[in-house]
Amino acid sequence: MNHAAEPIHSSISGGFLRHYMDIIADKALPYQWQVISGQRGPNPTVNNFRIAAGEVKGEFGGVPYQDTDLSKWLDAVGCALRNRRDASLEAIADAVIETIANAQDADGYLDTYYQLVRPNEKWTDPDSHELYCFGHMIEAGVAYWEGTGKTRLLEVACRMADHVCRVFGPEAGQLHGYRGHEIIEMALCRLFRATGETRYRDTAVWFVHARRDTPEQFYQATRKEGNPLDYGCWGWGDPERETSSYEHVTGHAVRAMYLYAGMADVAQLTGDEALLAHCRELLDEVTRRQMYITGGIGTTSVLEAYTYPYDLPNDTMYAETCASIGLCFFAHRMLMMQPDGELSDVIERCIYNILPAAIAQDGQHYFYVNPLQVNEEACRRDPLKTHVKPVRQAWYECACCPPNLARFFSSLPRYTATVQEGRLWLHLYAQGCTSFKLGGANITVAQHTDYPMEGRVRITVATDKPTAFALMLRIPGWCRRFWIDGRPGSSGMLSRGYLAIERNWSGETVLTLEMDMTPYMMQAHPRVREDSGKIVLTRGPVVYCCEEADNGALVEDLRASASAPIEQTWQNDVPGFGEYVGLSVPGKASSAAALAEERLYFPVEMSARNVTVKAIPYCLWGERVPGEMTVWIGRL
Amino acid sequence: MNHAAEPIHSSISGGFLRHYMDIIADKALPYQWQVISGQRGPNPTVNNFRIAAGEVKGEFGGVPYQDTDLSKWLDAVGCALRNRRDASLEAIADAVIETIANAQDADGYLDTYYQLVRPNEKWTDPDSHELYCFGHMIEAGVAYWEGTGKTRLLEVACRMADHVCRVFGPEAGQLHGYRGHEIIEMALCRLFRATGETRYRDTAVWFVHARRDTPEQFYQATRKEGNPLDYGCWGWGDPERETSSYEHVTGHAVRAMYLYAGMADVAQLTGDEALLAHCRELLDEVTRRQMYITGGIGTTSVLEAYTYPYDLPNDTMYAETCASIGLCFFAHRMLMMQPDGELSDVIERCIYNILPAAIAQDGQHYFYVNPLQVNEEACRRDPLKTHVKPVRQAWYECACCPPNLARFFSSLPRYTATVQEGRLWLHLYAQGCTSFKLGGANITVAQHTDYPMEGRVRITVATDKPTAFALMLRIPGWCRRFWIDGRPGSSGMLSRGYLAIERNWSGETVLTLEMDMTPYMMQAHPRVREDSGKIVLTRGPVVYCCEEADNGALVEDLRASASAPIEQTWQNDVPGFGEYVGLSVPGKASSAAALAEERLYFPVEMSARNVTVKAIPYCLWGERVPGEMTVWIGRL
What we know:
By secondary structure, chain A is α+β, with helices and mostly antiparallel strands. Chain A has 19 helices and 21 strands.
């Protein structure tokens, strides 16, 4: 198979996605630096490295994986600088990279928790976050090098990777497994791609194969007493469910996605078709059975885990921001090997719904858990929902999501297009440009669009010499009608969700893709019990929700008419966001008499109050007046 | 006020309630004895007493409140013997009562856990179950005396009560509070009524007043480290929510009901109108805001507690059997002071729905948690539902419910009627007889009925001399049409849910009450988010549910037509129960195409499959083929 994607450079210069990239670059990254460097109140992250580097005296603070708040932030800075240079951000990063380099042990080890707190216990606890800390710093090293060309952090990363390659492997004297929190697999593959150093690839392959071939050995280490990750008190305790598995979708949602993304990397680097097919089964199991309509994954807060197929409660879920980022990592890697609109649909679902919802327009407030139904009283008074926050928070004690969002949004351009099999695949529509070489020609494909606010994409293909190739336009799974240059297309014209435009391109060619953005109602598979009899309003890839701000309290009481047309209104009431399309549809709600009932149960009301059900994009929930929200609403 | 109910004797001789009383007497009590005496596998209950009595050597086994499995069983035996003598049961009880008496310390202390395991720590842990163990044994002593006239256990009870009266109180050297698990308040009042010993009443009053007047002192004791009841791992930890409160409905559902029942006792014994009014507010808060349509209470498994008004999830709830028994205790005591149909409705809701559901026809299987929606996979794979069992269990490690059900059902006759304010109030309709004295006359009121299977009750009033009094017939809250001797009645004729039939009775008079049993659909208050857009099929006081056995899998996908008539069918497919009325109504379910969808989300289906939604009484769920069940179903 020819699974390797060709070199390509894409940029996003405007529209919805650029808006979030700018929130990250202009607001979130400076804010996050202030937080992790302790300028906005006590935060130990950067200080831990300063202590480890000998720059200051003090004691380690925070959680055992505190280091990753900084490494993810540096990863994000690297990606952001690739999009747009920023001298002040770069100066801050350069300085802290020096500290990091000085904190590294001579043997390449770098994990300030172990260095400062448990120096004699390195690599003794298979449930530790050491490999997680190593992996994120390796990713940061590559990203910062890609964004700036500077190698200081890449060198740190290589020394860390070399250390991992010495410690782990099949040989006697090496460790043969380590559960912890996955990412090392992805990180080593990424470092191999950046450096060409085959031992990084080989160790990544070994990590994946060891799980596959000797899982007992890999998982055999027993959990230590008093380990900060001891979940014993949850009364769950089934190791099968706690740990990511090569075989099945199980365990902690983020960890599973990171493992599977790493497995996909290994499938690509080794050309392992069986592994690729297995990865696809795992992905389908997640996206066809265990994914919220917003792109959220992870059904339960208990171990932040999956439960069972079609179990998708809307109010007790976890749906952690990082899990959906991991899902994008995984789907993107699969897409690079096997273009398939279903994979792009998954990424689109995440990047227009759960992921932008997880960050406020001010870049300084975040959701970690992303509910589909929320009311403040439940978050406060129902112990099964205390993990759900009804408004975005300024920071979290476990702050994995904010910097992870920053690095993900900053890296969005690489998700837009790939060159594979001699074709250019356009996966995402966004104002911007993709340039690549093909058959000796320098080609650019520019997109002019306000997608997903509008369905029109003007594509300009420019080549410096005539070249025959197929432009593969993704027609999203949600799209029921589309036109190319005004001529209607049909699903019969698509191959795996892509429309091939085969031409001998020369000079500049303009094409127009128009996707029908008429709003529509979606339902869930009948096996999703929580959504029985309910619908979601959608428009293009954008999932809508009903807020108290527009509908009054008790949004779960709304029932929308499934047969009435959905009205669209341009609204501009979310400061910082600009105009967006609001939706409304006629519906019913309980009568005033029913609401005034003293009785808890009474004969069914045959009449009801006429209402207009109003909805806004889910990603904007909680941006106006805080209050109740629901994605799923009753249907008439 | 004249809140004291007059002496009265009622019996239940046939029909639904007698059926469950017989299950208890004939099947459950012998079975439960075999369990707690260790004849059906290891169970330490009776053996603990034997060890404490010096009859055998060994070590205490079980939970700290293990004693109550026996004391509740003896309470149940006492009540059952009052209904029907049973020499073999009585012989077993007499023998074990000797053991109990021998286990009691010279100072009256009796709690085998503390006696055997922590002899030097009596009354040192305010969160212990000591008062709970004492209270249940005191209740058993009274019940056994009432049922048999034998005083051996009553004497044990009096010594225990004397001990409590010495240890607790306002004086220096006495303990001023103890959280634990309430029941001592009820128990002391019951013992006072049985013996006339005022110190029992006075100490019960002190327990209630101390909570009201010096709650900080009452609750001040801090929880001990390592206490078996330390719920710290739940991450809940708000003491306000953990402990029953005099002021608000909060904390553990069973404990709160027991406390409130005791408060109602104290209100009655002291004539405290303010306390009575406060109790009524607490009861209304529970029954109008926090009670399931089945009579279940207790919203969350975390601390087995209430959460907030109208929060009534159907699948993660606790709805413990004991909590609804406690609710009946509370409502019954209130009813004795202030006849009100709403109170009888609450009791009826429990005794025809959640409580019979909690015991199998074989008398040997029980529900502790009583879900309104269940599927086996969720119970197994969703950590928020592992406390829910999809089938009745033979026993529980915390086996509070089986013997509590036994004592409750055995005591049902006392719930049927009361004489108050010179009137006879008929609260429950059941085949049986009530006899009492009034103004020198001996009066009997016999009921002939198959209620709730049928709505007709033939009431025969017989008196040995002419007497004028009002017969107060309860017209249930669910009843929309009724007839007295064929003449239609109306709600305008009712006072607080009762119809007064004032006559100068002489000889034998026959009246016929006919209640319309036409099935109907109920809805919940719109603020119950979990039930939005859903209905429940009901017939009389009986709540129905849809089972997989009748409807196939995915019962949550059913939508019933709210405008179609509901059909009734006599069915006879629950072994041991006899005939019952099944209900069916036209409805819709997802199409085969929707069920076969590979996609998790797709455009809303405008057509659907026609189905007949079939329902059986909730109390019979899980009695045929185990499978899915739901009480609330979608409405069309």
